[in-house]
Specification:
54% helix; two-stranded antiparallel ribbon; globular; 181 residues; alpha+beta; single chain
Length: 181
């Protein structure tokens, strides 16, 4: 017990700025390990029912724009804004409030097959590119084209190799391709 008290009092004597610096140092090391791990990994090619999260796209945007992760205040503001957009969407579409996948949209904030274009835009923002050309969609879908062909009318391409295939307004398929580094 005395040891625990001594440790706690020793920890309390460390200035808050040192804790912040230590936390940033640890976060930087973890981020470097993750990025380094991704850079050394092989090719990623998958077909899935769930795509990227809104948080992942926010982190990527801020990282690309400023070379850092979002600050607490930036995350808080973003969280309020996305919550307002989701609530407005659900008010405008009351039939979707009780849908089975509403928790994926509202709480996980993750794109999933079955969502409509408006939901995807709320979560991920505008895509890097859009195409309705069948030849381009075939190239993007790669080995999954036989399963997607004939159903997809449009593809939205997002960073990190995410490709979202739509039939009209509905998201019907998600693939990801990241070439080996």
């Amino acid at each position: 017990m005395l040891t625990r008290v001594m440790r706690c009092s020793a920890l309390r004597s460390i200035p808050e700025a040192a804790w912040t610096s230590a936390a940033l140092l640890i976060a930087s090391a973890v981020l470097a390990a993750v990025i380094g791990g991704c850079a050394t990994r092989g090719e990623v090619e998958q077909r899935t029912t769930q795509g990227p999260t809104a948080q992942q796209m926010l982190n990527l945007r801020v990282l690309e724009e400023s070379g850092r992760e979002p600050t607490f205040e930036e995350r808080r503001q973003w969280d309020e804004q996305i919550e307002q957009r989701i609530a407005a969407y659900l008010r405008a579409h009351p039939e979707k409030v009780n849908a089975l996948d509403v928790s994926t949209f509202r709480f996980l904030r993750q794109v999933a097959v079955g969502m409509d274009k408006e939901q995807v835009l709320i979560l991920l923002g505008a895509p890097a590119s859009i195409s309705d050309d069948q030849a381009r969609m075939e190239k993007i879908a790669r080995r999954y084209w036989p399963q997607i062909q004939g159903n997809a009318t449009e593809v939205w391409v997002y960073p990190l190799g995410w490709n979202l295939f739509f039939a009209g307004q509905r998201l019907i398929d998600i693939t990801q391709f990241v070439p080996p580094s």
